[in-house]
Amino acid sequence: MDFNGSCSKGSLRETCIIAGMTPLSSNNDRQTHPRWLITLLLAGLSTLGPFCIDTYFPAFHAIEMDLGAHHIEVQQTLSMYLLGFALMLLFHGALSDAFGRRPIILISLTVFIAASVGCAMAGSIHTLIIFRLIQGLCAGAGVVVGRAMIRDLYDPVESQKMMSHVTMIFGLAPAIAPIIGGWLYVGFGWHSIFIFIAVIGLLLLVASYFYLPESLAEELRQPFRFAALTRNYRLVLLSRRFALLSLAVSFNFSAFFLYIASAPRFIQDMLGLGPTEYAWLFLPGIAGIMIGAYISGRTAGRVAPTRLVGYGYSIMATAALINLAYNDLLPLSLPWAVLPIMLYTVGMALTMPGITLLVLDLFPSVRGMAASLQSFVTTLMNSVLSGALAPVLALSNRTLALGMFCILGAGAVCWLAYLLPVKRR
Fold first, then answer.
1. Helix, strand, coil abundance in the chain, percent, nearest 5
2. How many CB atoms sit inside 10 A of residue 99's CB?
3. Overall pTM > 0.70
4. Using only C-alpha atoms, what is the Rg of the chain?
5. Integer Cα distance of 165 and 294 in angstroms
6. What does the pLDDT look like over 19-55, one tens digit per residue?
7. Domains detected in the chain
8. Vertex 334, ends 278 and 255: CA angle to 5°?
């Protein structure tokens, strides 16, 4: 056995799994395409889910009027998408652990394309809600399986760099999605937004078919049997460290997602902007994510992941306090209303790769399942946030700022609770 993080094939396979090591040599043999291409492809697959969340925000009022729906029903097209997204996240990883990474990606993309076409053709709000639910059931495969593939293919330092690069590209989705959606809506109507999403899905399907490697060797796959699945789910879900890390990263993102879910109210009602001006919120947010992810990638192997996460929390806390004070004391104006959000996303992006890799390395033999359950926790929280909390907190800019501060506080408590026994050890 090579104690640098790999092991030989054959009879030592079980020893490697018990020791928490994946035979990287066998997986790297399967990586026949350039690393930059794999990075772009995995980033594209990861961004598909959030891209579908934000693209149709500018058309909310048009969908409400065209389909004769109440604004709460239109909001439920987002909530049901997130609910389906969260539910299927429970199984994407386990399926990829059993049948390989590639098949799950290809099948999910195929169904996603069909559901997107269904959304474009919907003639009633109820039909749109159903197809949005189906979209959500499929859209999460890329982010879950992509994370597992990164750790399959690379050692911890390279994985952090790769995860940071994917995060940088991933952050583009919330920024450009509503801008593209606004242009499509103004030029061609709201139906064209879902046609565009279907085209994106088709392009990813073709690229994945030809260029996406299979990173999980057959001898490392887990049996897809009820007893084995139940045992593995119990192993992950009953882990205190898994729960704390997953909740920490979920709260961190949810504090920012609160503004994403409230974007129509924040942009059009509070700031008085039009349906093509969502860039005022999303571009600063993406800029912060890219800055934080870049710093995370550059410091991989130089700064301890836990210390980097600590720096990220300091930045997020500072941003949340500034945001709270600004919204309480001063009237909203641009660009000051969005600069604290930009600073917050810098800290958020600093923490995300490190915490995610800590989660994946807790369970090296069922990484797909660990990635699934972590994503499930985050998405379920976002679903509750968008369906229940966001409509209440979006009543005013002050309640939005207070909500961000409190949600971040919950994430910080989870991170500190994880750190205490680690420091004792």
1. 80, 0, 20
2. 16
3. no
4. 21
5. 7
6. 333 333 334 444 456 777 877 888 888 888 878 877 8
7. 30-217+238-424 (1.20.1250.20)
8. 65
